[in-house]
Structures are given as C-alpha cells and as structure tokens.
Write a structure and sequence with these properties.
Layout lengths: L8 H4 L5 H9 L6 E2 L11 H12 L12 H15 L9 E4 L1 H13 L5 E6 L5 H7 L3 E6 L10 H7 L4 E6 L12 H13 L3 E5 L25 E6 L12 E4 L2 H14 L5 H13 L1 H24 L12 E2 L10 H12 L1 E2 L1 E2 L11 E4 L4 H16 L3
Parallel strand pairs: 1-10, 3-4, 3-5, 5-6, 6-7
Antiparallel strand pairs: 2-8, 7-8, 9-12, 11-12
Helix pairs in contact: 3-10, 4-10, 5-6, 5-9, 7-8, 11-13
Bound molecules: pyridoxal-5'-phosphate.
C-alpha cells in the first residue's frame, strides 16, 4: 500500500528530530557517556515520589477536573505569584497539562489561524517549529548569536515582524544554549509586542535553574504584559519529574478557556497521581530543588572551565543545564564533529544543527550528568580534539 498519500501533507513535511536520529545510533550501547538527553540525572526527590504513592494508596485513581485539581491550581497560583511575581486566578487563569509539551501545542492550536506567523528565536528547543506547523502556522526563526549570548535582541525581533505575525515564542533560560535575557532586552521585546498587538508565549521551564545568584525575570511580570502573555512552566526540569509528565499554562481566562477546549477533547486531564506529586513539589520541594540547582551550578562551572582550558570556546550560560561550545575552528560540521567524537571516544553530544541551521559550528552538551562521567567526558573530548589539530 502506498502510504505517502495517506499521511497529512503538513505532517509529512515535518522532519524527524535531529536529537532522535542521533540517539538511535547510541541506543543499546552501554559504553557511551551521554551528554545528550536534556534530562536531570537526579531521581525525583523521595517526598515527591511518596506523594504519588500515597495518592495511589488512597485509591485516587480517577479523572480530575479538565483544568486540573483545584488544589493543585491553588498551589500553582501561590508558587507563580511568589516566584514570577504575577498573580493568576486558580479558578480561571491556570490549566494543568501533560508536560509543557502539551501546553505549547494547546496554546498554538488555540490561537493560530492558518498562515499566521509565529516568531521564535533559534537555536531553540526542537519542538517549536514542528508545533507551529502542526497548528497550521508559519514558523519564522530569528537567529541569535554567540556574540549576543544567544539572547533575542529587540532589533532582530523588530526586523522579523510582518502584518501576519500573531505570536512571539520565548524560551529563557534557553534550551540548547543556556541563554538568559536581560531586563532591557525583555522590555524592548515587550514594547514591540504591545506596539504590534502580539501574543507572547513564554516557555520558562528552566526558570529556577539560574546561576550566579541571578533572579529570573518573566516577561509576564512587565507592565502591560500579563494580558498578552501565556506563561508556560512545569515540573520536568527543576523538580526532576520528567516521567510525571506535568506542566501548566497561566494566561488570561479567554485563552485558558480556548486551550481547555482542545485539552478536554484531546487529553481529558493530566494523571491524578502526578498532580498530587506536583502539589508536594510546589508546597515542600524548594529545598531539594535548590540543592539540585547548586549541583548543576558546580557542574556548569567545571564544564565551562575545562572546555575553555582545552581550547574550545565556550560562553558561560546563565541558566538551564546546557553548554553550547563553539567547535567551528576544527573544520568539521557539527554533525561530523559529533559523529567522530562518538566513534573515537564514545561520548555523545548533540550537533548544534539539531536546534536550527544557525547551530552549525556548535555542539550541545547537557551537564545534568554525574560528576565522574562529566570529568571523563571532558578528558575524552580533550583527547579527541588533540587528534584534530
Ligand atoms: N520546553 C523546553 C525548552 C524543553 O527543553 C523541554 C524538554 O526538554 C520541554 C519544553 C518539554 O518539557 P515537558 O517535559 O514539560 O513536556
């Protein structure tokens, strides 16, 4: 049977994730040190796991409200108010989703009409462009540069805005670069969004993972922005809860209502045991989260120092758990560099091009990996580049 006409055209046109392609090569090899997958090496703190277990023990095995348990939404509202300094109504302005991944999909599908343009900054998380395309939008990438610390400059955003632009997608701290945005840049971006009447979707999943004592600033907290911002956050990264599949979106009620329509038919609700665990994370999880953050901080400092010492130019990222070193001077493409590093030294890192064409010449290394493995990986990378010089 010829399936080429069976698959929807806009889905056929979406390329497979570059990360997935690369990691199929690594699967089943236990000799490989992986700096590849963007996932905490910590197990979810015990008291959070226990809350999920208690939930099952108490026989809480049902659906919840489509929006998520009200008790969880109240915890989210309190946490978001304290951490992001923006107030959202637990009853009307918060929806609990299956990861930030689902929240991205809901927001795009709820807001876009076919052909609407969505601007996002590259290099970026692999799902952004495909998610826009799946919602029948037009994905418009704005390149960021090493010189600008991979942050989105308002001038670059201004140049990309057209009469068809509907939304701007932000992600600070950024996957894959660890970039953060300055207050001045966020204010410039906010001014443009107000001027051109654009909606901002801001994926702040790494917001707790800021280093050097810097505080996270959300664009939603800037004057005039709450009414045009969809703030996305979740539990996967800072609370090491990837497998719980839980996230949330905070936005004005009409937007949450539209997202809820899609969610109630496509997903119904997020799992109840994950929601119970999330309440525990928000109410009592900050001390364990801060310990994990401090450990990532130490690892960031170690990895950046080692890469620079061995002659690989690596900026110091302000957040998340990725470094994005510049490997262009070795005369190999990102993919060639990553493949040869894997072949020669069994170290897996992701070619920068998996995150957009402007990632050429870079490599993404996730340092949410045990210190011993990180040390070994750095020695092996040093060994590998000595063969290239
Ligand atoms: N957003 C960004 C920027 C990410 O890096 C990831 C995962 O790597 C996600 C969203 C997906 O998060 P979740 O596990 O909450 O679906």
């Amino acid at each position: 049977m010829d399936y080429s006409n069976i698959i929807a055209k806009h889905i056929s046109a979406i390329p497979r994730s570059g990360i997935r392609d690369f990691f199929e090569l690594v699967q089943g090899r236990d000799d490989v040190i992986s700096l590849g997958v963007g996932e905490p090496d910590f197990t979810t703190p015990w008291h959070i796991r226990e809350a999920a277990i208690y939930s099952l023990e108490k026989g809480q095995t049902t659906y919840t409200s489509n929006l998520g348990m009200l008790s969880l939404r109240k915890s989210i509202s309190k946490y978001v108010s304290g951490f992001f300094h923006v107030d959202y109504s637990a009853e009307k302005e918060i929806i609990v989703t299956v990861g930030v991944s689902e929240a991205i999909d809901l927001a795009l599908r709820a807001l876009l009409n076919p052909g609407d343009e969505v601007i996002y900054h590259e290099p970026c998380y692999v799902s952004y462009s495909p998610s826009i395309v799946m919602a029948y939008g037009e994905a418009v990438a704005v390149e960021t540069t090493k010189q600008d610390g991979f942050s989105l400059k308002p001038e670059a955003l201004a140049a990309a805005i057209t009469p068809r632009t509907r939304m701007v997608m932000l992600n600070f701290p950024t996957n894959p670069t660890g970039a953060v945005a300055s207050r001045a840049d966020l204010e410039g971006i906010a001014a443009l969004c107000i001027k051109h009447d654009l909606i901002v979707m801001t994926d702040e999943i790494y917001s707790e993972l800021r280093y050097d004592g810097e505080e996270h600033l959300s664009i939603a907290a800037l004057p005039g922005m709450k009414e045009r911002t969809i703030l996305l956050h979740g539990f996967s990264k800072a609370f090491a809860m990837t497998g719980f599949r839980l996230g949330y979106a905070c936005a004005p009620q009409p937007i949450i209502e539209a997202m809820m329509k899609i969610h109630q038919y496509a997903m119904l609700c997020a799992p109840i045991m994950s929601q119970n665990a999330a309440i525990e994370a928000l109410e009592n999880g900050t001390p364990s989260m801060l310990k994990m953050r401090d450990s990532y901080h130490q690892r960031r400092d170690f990895v950046v120092r080692r890469l620079n010492e061995m002659g690989i130019d690596c900026h110091t990222p302000g957040g998340a758990f990725y470094v994005f070193p510049d490997i262009s001077k070795f005369g190999l493409s990102s993919k060639e560099f990553a493949m040869k590093l894997l072949e020669a030294e069994s170290v897996a890192a992701v070619p920068g091009t998996a995150f957009g064409a402007c990632g050429e010449g870079f490599l993404r290394c996730c340092y949410a990996t045990g210190f011993d493995d990180l040390k070994l990986a750095m020695d092996k990378i040093e060994n590998f580049i000595s063969t290239l010089k």
